[in-house]
Each structure stands twice: as C-alpha cells, then as structure tokens.
Amino acid sequence: MRRVSIVTPPAIEPVTVADARLALGQSAGADAPVLALHLLAARELAEAFTGRAFITTTFLMVLDEFPGMPADVWWDGVRDGVLPERQASIMLPRPPVQSVTSITYTDSASVTQTVTATDYYLAGDRVMLMPGRSWPAGARRGTVSVTFVSGYGASPDHVPAGIRAGILAHVRDVIERPNAGISSERIDNASVTYGAIRTGAAAGTGINEAGGLRGGAAALLRPYCVLRSGFA
Q1: How many Cβ atoms are within 10 Å of 169's Cβ, its own excluded?
Q2: pTM to 2 decimals?
C-alpha cells in the first residue's frame, strides 16, 4: 500500500490567467481570482485524469515496506542480470519524474535512516537498484518514504500543448455554460433539479468516462494518460 502527498505544490499553473483571458477573448478585470480558481480546479482534474504532474511538483510517497523480488522470477540473465521490469524496483506515480530527492526509513531501533543515493538510480518513473545492491532490511512497516520531483518543468512552456488546450477547453465550458448538464422539472408541487450523467464512449464528455472534465477536454488529454505495465 502506498500513500502519496504533495510536499511543494506547483509555483505556477500550466495555463496562466493572462493566457486564459486571451483564449477566451476577455479583458482584464476584477474577476481574476475566480478565473484563477477555475484554472486550478481544471489542472487538478486534468492531472487526476492523466495520472501525471504538469508543472514541477515535489511529492512524498510512503510505502508499507521496501519492494521484494517477485516470487516467480527465474531468469538470471547470465550476462545482463535480472530483467529490469522484474527487479525489486519502486514505481513512482505522477510522471514525468525529474529526480529522487531521498529515500528514508525507520529501522528497528526507531532511528530514521537514509538509503545511500549511490545504491539506486532513476529509470523513467522507476527507482532501480544498482547491480549487487539491495534494499535495507529491518525497516519498520509504513516508514519507507520516497521524496521525489515530477512534472514537465517549471514553466507553462514546458507543458505539452495538448494538455494546456485540454485545461482551457474545460475552463471555457465551465465559464460559458455554467449550467451545462443540469436539468430541472416540476413533479406535482415540487421542483427537481439534477445533473445529467452521460455514459458510453460515443458521448465523449460524460462524467463517467471523462473524470468530471467538460468541453471535450478529456479527448485532448486522453493521449497523455499514464499506461502502467503489469509489472507496476
């Protein structure tokens, strides 16, 4: 089991208020905080939908224990060592991962220890052991902590255009059609208001398959969704 939290949030949004105003054809006004809130909410939805971090963010992942070698490993490679996918590696969420800051744990004497950085290396979104190294033994359960940095970069220009367009599409729909998907009808003496949920791949913008994204944002963001292998 793993628990992931944000240590240092992004310093800037992938789509700035100025960029959003330009795209929406708006002029500067007092509603900037509201627009900024929409952009923040859209980014959080988009990151949850894709499983990625967009702007540089520091995360903390806490594991129950260090990973062990899968029980069904039989191939020793002779020349190249164990298949990387089957090594006792740590899979990091929210790619693209930029770096690993530290890996710590609490030992049997309740002392916090730091894994030597030269014992492991980062390969994509996996922390791999160097040849001949192993994870420390005796770590108390629930104390293995990995601090790492993810995101495309510190500037909106580093974020793929498709992601930024998806965020804008959602915000545009929220602003221009605030009541989209909300229906109301009168039953006897009562007025009932409810949200419509559309399902099925053909709909494309239904809540069930779009993670709450609107305005075709899901279609723009889907190519960036993280696909995990069976070795995750």
Answers
A1: 23
A2: 0.80
